[in-house]
Design goal:
The complex is a heterodimer of chains A (337) and B (622). Chain A is an alpha/beta fold and 337 residues long. Chain A is built from eleven helices and twelve strands. The longest helix of chain A is centred in the last third of the chain and has 15 residues, at 304-318. Chain B is an alpha/beta fold and 622 residues long. Chain B has three domains: 11-232, Pyruvate-ferredoxin Oxidoreductase, domain 3 (3-Layer(aba) Sandwich); 243-429, Rossmann fold (3-Layer(aba) Sandwich), CATH 3.40.50; 514-620, Rossmann fold (3-Layer(aba) Sandwich), CATH 3.40.50. Helix content of chain B is 36%, strand content 22%. In chain B, β22 (569-576), α19 (581-589) and β23 form a beta-alpha-beta unit. Classes of the chains: A alpha/beta (337), B alpha/beta (622).
Chain lengths: 337, 622
């Protein structure tokens, strides 16, 4: 009999025997630790977990998790992962990618994976730079940024990954700062539970080539005033004193202070991550003050592999073909005697 | 119902012949492919041996009447063995001046041309760049020309049926088919049944086609311009159940058979590309067998998703044509270094770049062998006829799975679209496929530990408890598969991956020569040129020449006895539809022999006549 019970795993069960080789101080360590903490919480068997990555610093990730994994080629992890999931929908399949891997060379696979809504969990390590090739601007680098390939400043306007994702019909999008392991662990668990493509963007600091690029959001001193952690069904409130909130002013989001100018908590927008219309989700993604984190969008819809499985069952039920011979000997055959 | 094949012809005027080559040509919207396939199927059921050659433009509906919009379907039927669609035509049916202009050169002198007289208007003649009407200027005096007012006769025949003009004109191809059926003493039954099935929900269309087909048939019967009709007796083929298949369908079915035989589910990751797309079209139909056919966002996603599926334990394939193989190169390297089974089908077309999408060529051999970065040998096999695509798709799957390696299967536009009778094979007749799957954890299992003989590693798929491991495109340690930058290890792994592929020579059939087993000349070919080379050598053999023919289905590795066979002939000529890619490979592998090349890159198959002429000159000049 097949063993269907899932044993209780620990952090250590998912740790591989390979030495981790990221630069000291890199946020990638935080992401790895958060993942190793999240995996035992998911209720998934270790042998059913698969990590697929592309190329880049982030893409070494599968080597450090003791599960099945493949370090594939640049930009193509979504395609490889799609094949894994279609071949065996019971697996929990993770895509590990970076801003160069997913937004540049693999942009096409990235958008189509989201459009199809295949049940993959995607962790996008966004550090707004190419690290492994030693410091070129990426599709998320800001305008004017000086890098090895833009010594006079970057002239290519950046993508906002969440905006691109929702444009590609992403049903699940979350964002989190690299220095927030607890929330990150929870987001990974939430992503696994969501049936469909779930994308988590991690704002990941690169200590070598783009150090401090997210400091204005993530520094301890400013963090609470600059970030807003969204929760479904809760008002959009932030700030050290939790007295700031978001309201709609015409077609724009506006920050207000509760208790000032007659504003009460009732006036503050309530986050609805399940709203199908992505307009407000897009506004939250674009907002730089505050920076919205947490699950911004989570809309349930049949996943691609479920649609495929349903269709297969339907066709199978109606088909006269049970064995390949039934097909080969059917139709316009004739006998030579 | 009048569907029986009554032999209406006056028997005195029926001439018995061995074979005939017919070509139907018209606008790309004229239904020439349908006309041709109907004639083919009917003749097959009558028992003739058959080879077909559809030749159509890349444009879907090219401007009417234009020279480049001509679509053609050639069929060769015989009471004796038929291996090619034939060089020259016994009958040409031209539905318009453009079709006549682009095809008349192929018609044998003294033979029959049927034209739709109604289409020879001033406008159409101009579109075909005729200065004068060829029907009246004497330029066709060498042929027996049968002018038929096909368009008006079709209109007349369908008068009273509530059909629009477009639908009426669309059935005129059936008039020509009816005529040809009478000329070659064929029954209309199969085609009439076809109408009833195909137009089940459009009874009016079925009725119209039926009427026009019969009208053509009876017109030919009563027409005194056609002096006689012909019969081609059934061919002597081995007993059994037959089906007419084209190469793409046979390829798809070969994979289905391999999937069932191996117990692995079939996964296809593919992106539409001419002329390979029909394999995708065929496989998506077969969800009832659990086939997962995924139309990806591009060629790269097609192969990468297949690599993922292979990692997860499916029989994974990807289908493409030349430009697509170029895009898949990097991923093919990943499959190679991870040692995952994968079949890549390349239905070759004219290149380079976009080249000639609907025409045939064999110019991707070197790309298949070498088109990747690094030392990256993969198995390369080729199918030689439409029906052989079934066997080679099966064989490619078997080699990929049993040897944990990517296999490139080369077919081409000519055999992919061409069709021939296939003696249906039951899956039970096919050899076993034994994937080196490891289903339960064993102590000290290592992902890259190898079988001593075959050097094949084991295949542990996600979901298998205790065998969790990581693969990747980085060089890996020779046993654990963990990343390794060790210099000696890299050399070891490079050598062993190559040696594994080389040893596949121990598992493939030896090369066999047809016709003379030694002698003056050995004709060497590979892939889709089998029919032409076989016919040409057969003709030489009949005429007493000492010529042998070997045809490579396995190109990397090559059969072990290749040099032994080469040594038995005074001269070797390598015939390919490219500029000499196989010659290049043979010169590298067997430099002790001298190779003469015979090459053609016109987007067309070899003509048997040209081949025999070349072979004779090679023998006579030595």
């Amino acid at each position: 009999m097949e063993d269907t019970a899932v044993q209780q795993y620990t952090f250590k069960d998912f740790q591989s025997d390979q030495e981790v080789r990221w630069c000291p101080g890199c946020d990638d360590y935080v992401i790895l630790r958060s993942m190793l903490k999240a995996l035992p919480e998911m209720g998934v068997k270790k042998e059913d977990v698969v990590f697929i990555s592309g190329i880049g610093c982030s893409s070494r990730f599968p080597y450090y998790v003791n599960s099945y994994g493949m370090h594939s080629i640049h930009g193509r992890a979504p395609a490889v992962a799609t094949g894994v999931k279609l071949a065996n929908p019971n697996l929990s399949v993770w895509v590990i990618t970076g801003d160069g891997d997913s937004m540049a060379i693999g942009g096409n696979h990235f958008i189509h994976m989201l459009r199809r809504n295949i049940d993959l969990n995607i962790v996008l390590f966004n550090n707004e730079i190419y690290g492994l090739t030693k410091g070129q601007f990426s599709p998320t680098s800001i305008l004017g940024q000086k890098t090895k390939s833009s010594p006079y400043g970057n002239t290519q306007p950046p993508f906002q990954p969440g905006e691109l994702a929702i444009g590609a019909q992403a049903r699940f999008f979350a964002r989190i700062g690299g220095g927030n392991p607890k929330a990150m662990t929870d987001l990974f668990v939430q992503a696994e539970k969501f049936s469909g493509a779930s994308l988590i963007e991690v704002l990941q600091n690169c200590v070598i080539f783009n150090d401090g690029c997210f400091n204005h959001f993530t520094d301890k001193a400013v963090k609470d005033d600059q970030q807003m952690f969204l929760e479904h069904g809760k008002p959009m409130i932030f700030g050290k004193n939790m007295d700031k909130g978001l309201v709609l002013n015409g077609l724009k989001l506006e920050v207000v202070t509760i208790g000032e100018n007659g504003v009460t908590q009732e006036d503050i927008l309530v986050h609805d991550s399940s709203e199908k219309d992505p307009t407000l989700h897009q506004m939250l993604i674009r907002s730089t003050y505050p920076l919205a984190t947490g699950i911004i969008r989570r809309v349930e819809e049949l996943s691609f592999e479920q649609r495929e499985a349903n269709l297969t069952e339907e066709v199978r039920a109606k088909s006269p073909f049970k064995k390949v011979d039934d097909l080969l000997f059917s139709g316009e055959t004739y006998e030579v005697k | 119902m009048d569907t029986e094949n009554k032999t209406l012809q006056d028997t005195e005027n029926v001439e018995q012949i061995d074979g005939v080559v017919i070509r139907f040509v018209g606008d790309s919207g004229d239904g020439m492919q349908l006309t041709g396939t109907q004639f083919t199927d009917t003749s097959a059921m009558f028992g003739n041996d058959i080879a077909t050659f559809p030749n159509y433009p890349a444009e879907i509906r090219a401007p009417q009447g234009s020279l480049y919009g001509v679509s053609g379907y050639q069929v060769h039927i015989g009471s004796v063995e038929v291996s090619t669609p034939g060089d020259d035509l016994d009958l040409l049916v031209a539905m318009n001046p453009a079709g006549l202009k682009t095809n008349i050169a192929s018609l044998k002198a003294g033979h029959t041309l049927i034209v739709d007289l109604d289409s020879f208007t001033k406008k159409n003649l101009e579109k075909a760049f005729y200065d004068a009407n060829p029907l009246t200027d004497g330029s066709l005096d060498n042929y027996r020309v049968i002018e038929v007012d096909m368009t008006s006769l079709t209109k007349e025949c369908l008068k009273g049926l509530p059909l629009d003009n477009k639908s009426v004109l669309r059935s005129k191809n059936m008039f020509s088919l009816g005529m040809v059926y009478w000329m070659y003493n064929r029954s209309m039954e199969h085609t009439l049944e076809f109408f009833n099935k195909k137009f089940k929900n459009l009874p009016l269309v079925a009725e119209a086609n039926t009427k026009v087909l019969k009208a053509g048939y009876y017109y030919a019967e009563t027409l005194e311009l056609i002096p006689n009709s012909f019969t081609i007796a059934p061919s002597k083929m081995p007993k059994g159940t037959y089906k007419i298949v084209n190469g793409n369908t046979a390829t798809a079915w070969g994979f289905l058979a391999a999937s069932e035989k191996s117990g692995l589910e079939l996964y296809l990751g593919s992106y539409p590309i001419t002329p390979a797309t029909d394999i995708l079209h065929e496989l998506v139909k077969h969800k009832h067998f659990g086939v997962k056919a995924f139309q990806a966002e591009d060629e790269i996603a097609g192969i990468c998703s297949s690599i993922g599926a292979s990692f997860a334990g499916d029989l994974a394939i990807t289908t493409t044509s030349g430009p697509g193989l170029a895009l898949k190169g990097e991923a093919l390297g990943l499959a190679m270094i991870t040692e995952l089974p994968l079949v890549v089908v390349n239905v070759q077309r004219g290149g380079p770049s976009t080249g000639l999408p609907t025409k045939t060529e064999q110019s991707d051999l070197l790309q298949a062998l070498f088109g990747r970065n690094g030392e990256s040998p993969v198995v390369v096999v080729a199918a030689s006829t439409p029906a052989n695509c079934f066997d080679m798709a099966f064989e490619a799957s078997k080699l990929a799975v049993e040897h944990m390696t990517p296999v490139v299967l080369l077919t081409d536009g000519y055999i992919a679209n061409g069709s021939e009778p296939w003696k249906v094979k039951s899956v039970s007749e096919m050899p076993d496929i034994n994937p080196p799957l490891i289903k339960e954890a064993v102590e000290n299992w290592q992902p890259y530990a190898r079988d001593k003989e075959s050097l094949v590693r084991t295949w542990a798929v996600p979901g298998t408890k205790g065998l969790e491991h990581r693969l990747g495109g980085l060089e890996k340690d020779k046993t654990s598969g963990n990343v390794s930058y060790d210099t000696d290890n890299h050399e070891y792994m490079t050598n062993i991956r190559a040696e594994k592929v080389r040893r596949i020579a121990n598992y493939i059939p030896e090369l066999e020569a047809d016709f003379s087993q030694e002698g003056d000349l050995l004709v060497v070919g590979w892939g889709g040129t089998f029919g032409s080379l076989h016919s040409a050598v057969k003709e030489m053999d009949t005429n007493g020449y000492k010529v042998g023919h070997v045809h490579f289905n396995y190109i990397n590795p090559m059969p072990k006895n290749t040099a032994d066979i080469f040594a038995k002939y005074k001269n070797i000529v390598v015939c390919e539809l490219n500029k000499g890619q196989m010659s290049y490979v043979l010169r590298a592998n067997y430099p002790e022999f001298t190779y003469t090349q015979y090459n053609k890159v016109q987007g067309l198959p070899f003509s048997v006549g040209d081949l025999t002429q070349k072979f004779k000159s090679l023998i006579d000049n030595n």
